[in-house]
């Protein structure tokens, strides 16, 4: 063996052994029970590498513990599997805070200056009141995405979705072949960013959109932050390209004609004296928030609806019954799909969408313990991290029944409420202070795509042998909360029988505060 390799191996083993002993000696019996492992520290690392988002489900299945301790090199983790404990953590947002993690994450992925890093970290623990970038950003996100404040965003997004479907729909008797995930990524990237960033949207340039997705795919080495210039050169170059486009956007006052959300967020940055160069860099994190999870959610909803012919027929009938048909004076026919009408009259569509989010949700909300705190009789130590894996809650048979690991489209029908757990057990959008603020906009977007798709088009997989066999999702990006498919699905698209040439299709959402309620907090939104 090469002496250098031997030395590196021995040094690594000694370091891991030291860290393992240190962590074990650091364990306090008042803390949550230690997760079982054959080899201290190493077993957890191997498990997380091999099983990724399923590892904590494995540990929970073996222990049944509502909370357990996972010591890792350099960091102690408390993993919470109980929805009731998760709710308690969310209520104690001072003792268990997301802000220090968010601000550090923002600066790492953005590559912002030390000056801006100090501004982002200012008052992250709230000791100096509810001001500073972290706290003001929560308010801006909340206000900018209220159902009553996203009408303009909805209108712009739906116009883009309708236009893309017009281009996709082939003439009668003809077929178009597309890669479904790629088509959705292109369509929803355009629709979402134009709605958020306005007419001067940097992503109008396809090369900027491509650069963003290259960055997103290579984000993990940047997050780990070990020699990123060596291991993440392409991602860093792509990030620089996106940042330069946003610098031009902000210095040209593009935000002034953008959505309320963009204007509010820019106001937070300028009030806190972030340099425009760093505002442009940090905005790549904003793009992650608005896009990375909507696209796989739309993909899986379309996939599972089409994989079940009976389900497709039933949802198609629901949607068809909601379509308004209006002949024009010139002989044209306008067919209108109203999202508000769908929400009121398509229970199976809504149930299938929510079940998709439950079935493919794999996010892990994280909090930092800011002070020694007792939770359910256990001591949680300052400086440790809390993880609340969605996958554990969503796959728990004690909550969802023996079919917890099956896709059941009827699960969220109103008449089945008594056979499913309370709303706090649905964790795809997180909860508490960090409940996903864009969930209403994303829901409108996905429902629009799915409803218009089933109303206008027929779709079948090109690979008849695989059929609607679900792709694996082991390589989902580090920023993802929804599983992304490891392979694309090539499909043939044709115009649905009975859909005439020349029909004009419109997708709209009426103004109003009514929402599709999926999480506990939504029941206070109306």
TrEMBL record:
Q: Name one Pfam family in it.
A: p450
The cofactor(s) it depends on are: heme
- Source domain of life is Eukaryota
Coiled coil regions in record: none
- What are the alphabetically sorted keywords of the record? Heme, Iron, Metal-binding, Monooxygenase, Oxidoreductase
Question: InterPro entries this protein is in?
Answer: CYP450_monoxygenase_sec-met, Cyt_P450, Cyt_P450_CS, Cyt_P450_E_grp-IV, Cyt_P450_sf
The answer to whether the entry has keyword Endoplasmic reticulum is: no
What protein family is recorded?
Belongs to the cytochrome P450 family.
PANTHER family this protein is in? P450, PUTATIVE (EUROFUNG)-RELATED
Name of the protein: Cytochrome P450 E-class, group IV
Which source organism does the UniProt entry give?
Podospora pseudopauciseta
